[in-house]
Design a protein that fits this description.
Number of strands: 12
Oligomer: single chain
Strand order of the largest sheet: 5-6-7-8-9-10-11
Structural class: alpha/beta
CATH superfamily: Enolase-like C-terminal domain
CATH class: Alpha Beta
Helix content: 25-40%
Order of helices and strands: EEEHEEHEHEHEHEHEHHEHEHH
CATH architecture: Alpha-Beta Barrel
């Protein structure tokens, strides 16, 4: 294993560790409250810094807008797809507003983050179906319940938080529990591990982020670039969800897509966000 240099940062309320190595930079930044093993996130960062990424088969990644409340119509119209967070009836109304804003030609997918039970998921998806939903992401928490929902609805179902290992992916495939899988490279242990999960699941994939800096997003972009097929816009236009970034040339969408490229932090921003004992005292 090559020697890696560690940079501990605090960006807003987020702890971020960057690793610098012979292949470039990697990020370990587990998201509080989101299911991810810190060891897997660390392995993902080490892979990026020490080994780099697999060969890309595309140089640009289409990305979706993210809506979780009031939105700007002109902003979301810049993207080829829109993802809406839906928890309850207010979320259904939000989907209706987004559909009205973007028209019939833009895919809308929704994400429940596993918060519904089976009966509520079936009910909510029936209400959402009238808005021509592309897919519903993680409507219920468990793989077996995901399979029950999928058998009861016509809208495609995506698996996200319930897939963290190869065994999970194999169980998903055996149960025919999803039409597609959501891949986040950090909680899966890196780009290559995520590609193995994709192969084991046997369904198409969409790549999303864990709200990282541009360094972490670059790994997500590399994963999307390495997939043999990419039928869906990816959830990688999330830099605005973080309180800052580590580069003056951030990895952001232009005309609804993100370019596949390397990202290296700028020294002044590493210094600005460097962890200190005062950070710990304020947290």
């Amino acid at each position: 294993m090559p020697q890696l240099i560690e940079h501990r940062l605090r960006i807003g309320d987020r702890d971020v560790t960057l690793l610098q190595g012979p292949a470039g930079w990697g990020e370990c930044s587990p998201l509080p409250g989101y299911p991810s093993d810190p060891a897997a996130c660390r392995a993902a960062a080490a892979e990026a810094a020490g080994d780099g990424f697999p060969v890309a088969v595309r140089n640009s990644i289409p990305v979706n807008a993210l809506v979780d409340g009031p939105f700007l119509v002109q902003e979301i119209r810049r993207y080829p797809a829109v993802k809406v967070k839906v928890r309850d009836a207010q979320g259904v109304a939000l989907v209706a507003a987004v559909r009205d804003a973007v028209g019939s030609g833009v895919p809308i997918r929704v994400d429940a983050n596993g918060t519904w039970d089976v009966d509520l998921a079936i009910e909510m998806i029936a209400r959402l179906a009238r808005y021509d939903i592309e897919f519903v992401e993680q409507p219920v928490a468990r793989i077996d319940d995901l399979a029950r929902v999928r058998r009861a609805v016509e809208v495609p179902i995506a698996a996200d938080e319930c897939i963290r290992t190869l065994d999970d992916a194999r169980a998903l495939r055996a149960a025919a529990a999803a039409d597609l899988i959501v891949l986040k490279q950090q909680p899966l242990g890196g780009v290559r591990a995520a590609l193995d999960v994709y192969d084991a699941a046997g369904v198409p994939a969409v790549v999303t982020s864990m709200m990282e800096t541009s360094v972490g997003l670059a790994a997500g972009v590399a994963l999307a670039a390495a997939l043999p097929e990419l039928p869906y816009a990816c959830g990688l236009a999330t830099l605005g969800s973080l309180a800052g970034d580590v580069t003056h040339t951030p990895l952001v969408a232009v005309d609804g897509a993100i370019a596949v490229r390397e990202v290296a932090p700028d020294a002044d921003l590493l210094a600005r966000y460097a962890w200190s004992a005062s950070n710990e005292a304020r947290s």
